[in-house]
């Protein structure tokens, strides 16, 4: 995956590189490009020979004619000498303006290339109100959302499929805050009663533990204790298998529960949030406080046995295949209970915890009081408040989560250029054994074809009922629908063409059990890709993205899967040892990077760091191959960089971002990617091509002399 997203707050329109600034702003950096009325002469007239004109024009027009000739000669001079080797198309002038605006010319590219590339962008982009972070990715996603809003709210909307019409109905039910406020907490109160009650808010059925667990985990898709899914068997990728994994924590990471000193503010806010939700659902404050504290203590105990993310990177070590019968306790097994009261206590505690997982999953579709209750928690976690988010944006996000491929059909038909499927091709330099796997990788670009076939699209969402006036019921219906679809997958062979991201998504990913890579339509736009942009920027943008995802096939996890997508030891021991030594270098490198005094986890981020480094190298070599075949491109005006330097600048400016300290901490403990600054600095510091083209002396921060290279 290229980018880790977590959106908790609202949007305002700040300066964004590549996207918003007109070409006129380039003038301050390149005055000679000032638009002038006479430019039409150079573009549309051939300046006639003077002797021809003298023969036919009256003498009193000769001064005017002389001026015209002078202007034509001047324009020709400017284009020939000043514009020699420069791309002066509208697209080139515009993108040059935006890149210059994003840069910090005062920074030394050999000391801090991130500051050099993004200093201007960061200065012009204070965090928008309600945002915990802001980046190019967020900006593109906001634009995609705005387009989808326009499509769904269009008074002449007429979807070509029933699925598209369901999409609009779902979106409108989310926007119908009047109806949501009228219903208040009652939909969830009724659901709790239907399942068997909650000790927190009223009577509960003490003997139905398994029924509650089945309901909460099955048709309502909460995940207490563990998660349940159906996926391709890693060791037999042609068959599906039930997969159980650790789950059950509400906070983003086990670290928030176990490192109490550093996260005291978050834990206090979380308990307050829990108590407030219990109270809104009918609980009495003092008893709710006690019961919620018990649930928090239980989650903390669960966190203590949860395996940390950086210890789950070896796919072989976490693969444990058993039969259902092996999971059963033998019915004839006798257990002696010497403390019956303890069993009763455990029963109500576990019931409370299970119902809490359902409550926290469901409150997003209730009235404003429940959203307000979350503000303090979000502020402690991310440094922002969700209530700042416009309702329509929340609803677009919910609709994408629920009916994303039907929504994607609308998006693709409105925006996607079929030529975008013909993007740059990237190859990795590999030994023959690895080359066989690389050659077997297949890519899926833009969108799955079925979304443009109304019948096929309707078949996908057949059985999902959407109500016009009950957002909560739509949510429950979807949980039930997705549960049935998941169960049905167990009886089928894995679909290698199945997508895990919707078309509007601004991201990309690699699928190890399918040995495939996916690039949704949402990322196939500037600054990653544009047909009229210099190839240096396209290779530095979408080219690096492609190289990144290709390299995932050979990172510390992807390398464990063969070309058929099966988990097995297919490398020679000597190759494994050489790989281990190279990855040790990279882990050590990233371990030394810090954000606000907190270290990056080089082991947790290893796979993404390998992909970043390998992707950049592959994309740059692909760009040089293109140049050798097609010749050098014209340079961008005003940027004052060679095209090779432009490649690296384009790569870096994709990662321009700002975020709150709280959000930065959350990223360090949860995100498998390094912080944006180090995705630039760490990768370029390992690139001899970068150091050569920017003439970085040995011993400078961007050319330390110690490089880590895996691929």
UniProtKB/TrEMBL annotation:
EC category name: hydrolase
Q: Where is the Peptidase M13 N-terminal domain?
A: 109-334, 350-425
Q: Does Transmembrane helix appear among the keywords? A: yes
Residues covered by the Peptidase M13 C-terminal domain: 507-710
- Give the catalysed reaction(s), semicolon-separated: Hydrolysis of the 21-Trp-|-Val-22 bond in big endothelin to form endothelin 1
**Membrane topology of the entry:** Single-pass membrane protein
Check the record and name the Gene3D superfamilies matching this protein. Answer: Collagenase (Catalytic Domain), Neutral endopeptidase , domain2
What name appears for this protein in its UniProt entry?
A: endothelin-converting enzyme 1
What organism is listed for this UniProt entry?
Answer: Cyclopterus lumpus (Lumpsucker)
Provide the organism lineage as a comma list. Answer: Eukaryota, Metazoa, Chordata, Craniata, Vertebrata
């Amino acid at each position: 995956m290229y980018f880790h997203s977590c959106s908790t707050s609202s949007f305002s329109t700040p300066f964004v590189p590549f996207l918003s600034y007109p070409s006129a702003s380039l003038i301050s950096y390149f005055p000679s490009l000032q638009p002038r009325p006479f430019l039409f002469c150079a573009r549309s007239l051939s300046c006639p020979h003077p002797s021809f004109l003298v023969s036919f024009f009256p003498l009193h027009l000769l001064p005017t004619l002389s001026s015209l000739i002078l202007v034509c000669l001047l324009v020709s001079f400017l284009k020939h000498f000043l514009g020699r080797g420069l791309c002066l198309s509208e697209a080139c002038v515009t993108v040059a303006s935006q890149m210059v605006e994003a840069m910090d010319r005062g920074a030394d590219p050999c000391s801090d290339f991130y500051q050099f590339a993004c200093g201007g962008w960061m200065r012009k982009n204070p965090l928008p109100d309600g945002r915990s972070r802001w980046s190019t990715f967020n900006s593109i996603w906001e634009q995609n959302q705005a387009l989808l809003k326009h499509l769904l709210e269009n008074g002449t909307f007429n979807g070509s499929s029933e699925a598209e019409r369901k999409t609009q109905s779902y979106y409108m039910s989310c926007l119908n805050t009047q109806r949501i406020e009228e219903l208040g907490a009652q939909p969830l109160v009724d659901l709790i009663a239907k399942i068997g009650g909650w000790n927190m808010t009223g009577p509960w059925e003490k003997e139905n533990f398994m029924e509650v667990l089945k309901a909460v985990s099955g048709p309502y898709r909460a995940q207490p204790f563990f998660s349940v899914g159906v996926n391709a068997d890693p060791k037999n990728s042609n068959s599906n298998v039930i997969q159980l994994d650790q789950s059950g924590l509400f906070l983003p990471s086990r670290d928030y529960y176990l490192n109490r000193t550093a996260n005291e503010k978050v834990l206090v806010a979380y308990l307050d949030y829990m108590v407030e939700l219990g109270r809104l659902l009918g609980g009495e404050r003092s008893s709710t406080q006690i019961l919620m504290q018990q649930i928090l203590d239980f989650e903390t105990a669960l966190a203590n046995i949860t395996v940390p993310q950086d210890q789950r990177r070896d796919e072989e070590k976490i693969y444990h295949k058993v039969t259902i019968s092996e999971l059963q306790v033998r019915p004839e097994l006798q257990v002696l209970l010497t403390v019956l009261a303890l069993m009763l206590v455990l029963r109500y505690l576990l019931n409370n915890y299970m119902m809490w997982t359902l409550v926290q999953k469901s409150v997003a579709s209730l009235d404003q009081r429940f959203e307000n209750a979350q503000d303090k928690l979000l502020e402690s976690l991310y440094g922002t408040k969700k209530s700042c988010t416009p309702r329509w944006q929340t609803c677009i996000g919910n609709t994408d989560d629920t009916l994303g491929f039907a929504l994607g059909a609308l998006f693709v038909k409105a925006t996607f250029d079929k030529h975008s499927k013909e993007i740059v091709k990237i190859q990795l330099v590999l030994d023959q054994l690895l080359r066989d796997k690389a050659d077997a990788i297949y890519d899926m670009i833009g969108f799955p074809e079925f979304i443009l076939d109304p019948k096929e699209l309707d078949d996908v969402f057949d059985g999902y009922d959407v109500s016009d006036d009950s957002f909560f019921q739509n949510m429950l219906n979807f949980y039930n629908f997705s549960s049935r679809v998941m169960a049905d997958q167990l009886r089928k062979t894995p679909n290698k063409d199945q997508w895990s991201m919707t078309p509007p998504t601004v991201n990309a990913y690699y699928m190890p059990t399918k040995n495939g890579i996916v690039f949704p339509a949402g990322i196939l736009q500037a600054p990653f890709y544009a047909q009229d942009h210099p190839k240096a920027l396209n290779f530095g943008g979408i080219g690096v993205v492609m190289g990144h995802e290709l390299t995932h096939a050979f990172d510390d996890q992807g390398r464990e899967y063969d070309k058929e997508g099966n988990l097995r030891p297919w490398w020679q021991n000597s190759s494994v040892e050489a790989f281990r030594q190279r990855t040790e270098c990279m882990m050590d490198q990233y371990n030394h990077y810090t954000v606000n005094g907190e270290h990056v986890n080089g082991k947790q981020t290893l796979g993404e760091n390998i992909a970043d480094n390998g992707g950049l190298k592959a994309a740059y070599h692909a760009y040089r191959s293109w140049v050798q075949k097609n010749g050098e491109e014209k340079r961008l005006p005003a940027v004052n960089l060679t095209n090779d330097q432009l490649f690296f600048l384009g790569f870096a400016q994709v990662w321009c971002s700002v975020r709150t300290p709280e959000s930065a901490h959350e990223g360090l403990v949860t995100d498998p990617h390094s912080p944006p600054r180090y995705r630039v600095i760490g990768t370029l510091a390992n690139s001899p091509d970068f150091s050569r083209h920017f003439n970085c002396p040995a011993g400078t921060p961007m050319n330390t002399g110690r490089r880590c290279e895996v691929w």
